Amino acid sequence: MDFVIISVPLSSTKKKHDRLFSLASQLNFGALSIASHLEGKGIQTKVFDPQHYSKAEQLPAVISKLKEYQPKVIGLSCISGFSYPNFKQYCSEIRRHFPNTPIISGGKDHIGRIAETVLEECPDLLLVTTGESELVHEEILFRLFKSPQESLKGIPNIYYRDANGKTCKPAICHAGEVNSFTSLNYHLYENFQNFPASIEVSRGCPFSCDFCINDKTRPFLKKRISQIANEAELLQIAYEDPEVFTYFQAPLFNMSIEELLELISLKKAKGLTFKWRAQGRVDTLTAEKVVLMGKAGAKVIDFGLESGSPNILMRMGKTSSPTEYLTKALTLFRAAAESNLIIKINIMFYIGESWETLAETFSFIETNISIINAISAYPVLVYPGGDFKEAIKSELNTHGGSFVENSFWGDRHLTPINPSFEFSYEDMQSLGVLFGKAFQTQRSFFNERKAGYYRPRVTYEEFSKQVSFVSRDSLPFSKSENEMLDNRNQLRHLLKLQRHWGKNENSS
Ligand code: B12
Ligand code: SF4
Hints:
This protein has 17 helices and 18 strands. It has helices spanning 29-40, 55-69, 84-97, 115-121, 134-146, 225-238, 257-270, 287-295, 310-315, 322-338, 355-367, 388-398, 407-410, 425-439, 442-449, 460-468, 481-507; strands at residues 3-7, 45-48, 73-77, 103-106, 127-129, 158-161, 167-168, 197-200, 202-203, 221-222, 245-249, 275-280, 298-306, 342-349, 374-379, 381-382, 402-403, 415-418.
């Protein structure tokens, strides 16, 4: 085998409940995109992802897979800080077993952002790519196949170690090197049937939210609808399921009316019946688009609503007219509900969050709960490589917030935020769980998750069995409608009490 890419599994999760259930898994389509591209160039490549093994078995499974394949070059994919401690351990353990095989790595949203530090921290690593890597890989492998000592000088987008062990910077760095998409060849991803199906529908994002590290220099690139339909057709066959649930992956889903109409007509012409889900912004979707999404087979839309508090929405730069924004959101939710779509809203607790602002978000959700099916709430985190950390310092100070800096987070190069006088990062995490419990039941949570987050064909019975092993407090949902209403009352009461208490405090 020429090349094997290992998708490095999570060392810890973002939300405490992210991996409560072993049904959850995520396909690393970035790694698969590289493999698909290289395979097209005649370079034999495989992706191995040990997510489905127990924690203790993951690394041994990786080593034994590499021994089976004996690749000429080993690649490690690390797209988030939550995988980084594993990444460091994988580098040294792989080196121990394969003393002479070059180990290369990438993950533009995490290790690519801190490439120099990564080379310092991982002495066994030959290089880190800083951005997208389909094209750059060809050149890297071409040189390494000639000889592992071959100079990597002049290749753009890579930080590498030269023959003397000195770290070399790339002469040129550009974020978006890809200007057309390689269709994903699922058969290069071992056991892909255990992962939810994904199709990458676009790259980059035309917006530039302050807190997001999505590379602002990359032009927004959409996949052609005909290519999406062809990939979906192959997925239906590969998964042996005409209704295969597919995650339409993108930093921002933004199909136009014409594109949605094309998808509808292509699906009809080809007799395709796959279902899909996508993540959208309130200000780029319209009611008309939402209805067409439903007609094109969408079943779930994740809305990055972020907050129901006007002040918070303005502070995070989401909108300058929050009333309009929230009214627009409701128009979209209604259109989605009328098309029988599941609506999940994502809430981001932000700098300056107070009992007052939480009460506003609570009240927005409560008033509209008949058209909202699921919710995920989490505090903002600072990721490395951008200027967000510097930019928010004074605002954080104003609100009595601070950065959480300790060895756990330092090891991951991630920085959570205590957002205000009132709340620590941990408080926000716990309140996120309480919001989940107040507005979703076990059934509604499952209906939303099974569509693109859990392994294909999972049943409610399997899910319930797993739930029965988990303590009630850790669950991000209530077990029944009645429990949900109780939890909602309790949260409402807590918010009311604390707001009054806060007001009395201020006036005394
Ligand atoms: C789509 C997406 C996902 C998808 C798929 C990602 C994927 N790689 O397939 C899924 C749902 C699986 C996912 C999961 C998670 N994600 Co995510 N995700 C995104 C999102 C929205 C877009 C990323 C994207 O466009 N990728 C396009 C692909 C092509 O790029 P890529 O995967 O990085 O791969 C390219 C390069 O990195 C490189 N490369 C990749 N692997 C390798 C290997 C080698 C050897 C080499 C040389 C190069 C190389 O080449 C690839 C092809 O060009 C971004 C946010 C954003 N707005 O951009 C967040 C983001 C990347 N995710 C993030 C997080 C935190 C997570 C999760 C922890 C969430 C969770 N609650 O579980 C998990 C972590 C998974 C993990 N194993 O670490 C953070 C990462 C921040 C950080 N620095 O840690 C981001 C930035 C969002 C955010 N702000 O919170 N995510
Ligand atoms: S719209 Fe989403 S992907 Fe785009 S910059 Fe904002 S947070 Fe990032």
